[in-house]
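Predict the assembly for these two chains.
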Amino acid sequence: MQMADTPYQFPDASGHFGPYGGIFVAETLMPALAELREAYAACQNDPEFIAEFEYELKHYVGRPSPIYHARRWSEILGGAQIYLKREDLNHTGAHKVNNCIGQAMVARRMGKPRVIAETGAGQHGVATATVAARYGMECVVYMGSEDVKRQAANVYRMKLLGATVVPVESGSKTLKDALNEAMRDWVTNVADTFYIIGTVAGPHPYPMMVRDFQSVIGKECLEQMPDMVGRQPDYVLACVGGGSNAMGIFHPYIGVPGVKLVGVEAAGDGLDTGRHSASLTAGRPGVLHGNRTYLLQDEDGQIIETHSVSAGLDYPGVGPEHAWLKDTARAEYVGITDAEALEAFHKLCRLEGIIPALESSHALAYAAKLAPTLPKDKILLVNLSGRGDKDMHTVAERSGLQF
Amino acid sequence: MSRIQTVFQRLQADGRKALIPFVTAGFPAPELTLPLMNALVEGGADIVELGVPFSDPMADGPTIQRASERALAQGMSLRKVLETVRAFRATNADTPVVLMGYANPIEAMGQERFVAAAHEAGVDGVLVVDYPPEECVSFAATAKAGGLDPIFLLAPTSGEQRFADVARAGSGYIYYVSLKGVTGSAKLDVDEVARRIPEIRAAVGMPVGVGFGIRDADSAQRIGAVADAVVIGSRIIEEIETNPGEEVARVRDFMRSIRAALDALAAGKGAQA
């Protein structure tokens, strides 16, 4: 859990990353968050907790995940070399499980027998259900009823793992509404329930805690890259919805000079169409879901419906630390459309024999744009945050096929 | 002295309890909000809480969320809420109006612009559900300086430190959320409320209103026996929802039943809590 040796010290004691982050929740949740802050602070400094977390990551998740040189694809692109951090090879098929194990361990130490989670595509729900089964905890997952329909296979996976999936009918019936509903459950059942948030957003300490658990990704890269290529990469790229896989790989690199950090948001049908999920690129700061951050909102401050071909990026907010990295220009944020992401998806399938998640395909697509503009000795490290098995239906439909 | 303080002083002198109903602005239709506010006052409201609809009302239950969605679908906005208050003030100079809502519409307008516009429209207080005291030191100060009482929530889970925090940041009254959960929940533990209120009132030095879970004359009377004010929200929204076309009359009648129960209490005829 030790941070890289850098002067970057965020968030502050009250959970702020400059003007972002904080604790914007109703009074009913304040004591629960205070209890969580104390519990997490104790875990952070407990060698036993750290050792157990590392043991679980190694033996249950299968870490460290390898880094793979996408040689054929790099050659065809004709520029910089592309390396992939293979989070898709983790147990459950994505980076999400790193965080779920960490939070479930905190929940166990707090004596909370019940965990709840929100999920969009179902990946975080599956990871939470998996970990709840592993630790023998009751698990309830809130999922927008639209997503329940779109992600039937993941709903079944969660049920197989013993979780109860609650379809949410309010609002746009997607991720943000599932998050609202999970918060309501937590307010009501706070005494015995731990809320496992799936991304680096929400009220303090969640953005920090989720980042810390996901930082294992970047920490491994810091060691693996010199072993593989003798140095650190020139660019680190990752897709950003809420931003947990990006923060996990970025954070250990924040203090490393010369490494450019690029977050790739979902530009959907195009930023000018209004149908996208690019909160950092096209939104403005506001308050939602417990933190101040960039949001997609109308003039009156109402949250607007978002769109992306990848359900995991389909969220109107973003983690507050990304907002801070954007404003301080330590990271750059760009948009990739559905069409560009799908093209990269197919390229990776055909050229490297890897089926990437549609979320990760956004980062791959930007790498494919960037690589040809750079000399061959430059290195791009892309966080391949998840595998694409879950996206078979979406991709087939887009290609005019049906199972 | 603010309109809110004036109301509580007058009630206290009479030995009566404040009745504070809540309606979501723009529900069931924007043009019905003003008549509904007037009906609340005719039915015995001492203060009117007007909900500013928000797309993601995390602390509200399904009833108020549904009302917010319908209001937004008909174009309700923070600006239009302020216009409605201005229209209300044209015929009512005495009944305080408190806006209740979420932070983002206020942030989108700008905190200072909001305070100035709200005060100018005749708003007396503002309760921002997701602005706890530690996140709104400057907003609370701006509100007070601009003539708005910043009103804060306390919950069954709040400890003594929280009492001190809201006492420092808030003014007007304190809104005690009588149960764990969201608005409109069913379980109300009157004994627990009765135990907490004197302790809270002493700590904050302000009147304490109780809301969340008060649904009828009986529960209003039992809460009124221990609190300074009774807040009713979801139950009124349900009355509106289930009586299309007769909303205004039904809300006025419902309010009268609650008012009578509270005044019976003042006259010493009420149930002992």
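Chain B has a mean pLDDT of 93. Residues 3-266 of chain B form a domain with the TIM Barrel fold (CATH 3.20.20.70).
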